[in-house]
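Researcher: Please translate sequence to structure tokens.
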Amino acid sequence: MSSTQHDRYKCGPLEILVAAETETLRRKIADTLDLYNVEWTEPLTQWQIDIGESDNAIQIGPGEYLQCARMHVEISGDQLLATCPSGAQAACDPHTRRWTMLVPRASNDPWVLTDIESLLSLVLTEGWREAGWVPLHAAAVVRNDTCALICAESGGGKTSLTAALVRQGWQTLGDDKLLLRIGADGAPELRGLVHTFNLHPRTRSWFPEVGDLERLPAYSDWTEKRKVHPETIWPGSTTNEAAPSVLLHLSTGTPNRKTTLTRIDCPSDPFHLSDPLSPASVLSILLHRTVVPSHAPTARPTFPASLPVP
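Model: Translation complete:
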């Protein structure tokens, strides 16, 4: 690879060093990793990514370690190999904490850049897991001694509910990407990764203070949503860490397609909700909010049996 310069990105507890062969690859990685804008205290665990182009085609693997979207991942010993239909691939050497990524040279496949995003997500997920954290596709809000973890499918209302609560004086750790672990005292800890909301322009009809979001660029080709920092709309609305005490599950699976809220039973319930969730339901919801490999030795400790129910 011709480039030896490394760009640095801080992504939660990780520092990612990136050497990219082309400016296009460099910009794509920057677009993805620059999203992680929550400052974590050092020391951070350092990982390296070298990404370049290749003329050699590679056959996509069966995905025995993990299948996620278009990406298939295999494991050999303790080394990972990820392949995508576009020909994008990544290999990990955990001993040196180094990933080598290759994309097909002069590819006309429109999914190449999307596959690079998937490979970067794999890099981060494996790094976070090695550092003792479980990534969650969830939102969280905090007020006083209550921290509510908000879970829903994509498009299920996490951001809208988070914004509504922030408007009422709650603080948020984020509306989409969080990390969870068991602390030294045995209690669960949540940490934020991204302090940016993904808001659809129609949100203005509910929250006029967000302004005309259509003036902002859409953050991807696949959505009309815009990225907005909540602090620019609701000053003091973000925080970085909390201990979860309530779980809200937004479900649209009812016959009338109405959103319902269920919770973990909590003596002090600021949401005044019914239908407490069982520990088994809590575990199921959390497992559906993270990526769990098919590889049993890796998957087994994702949520330890000792995980306290908030």
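Researcher: Any highlights?
Model: The helical segments are 23-33, 112-130, 158-167, 279-287, 296-299.
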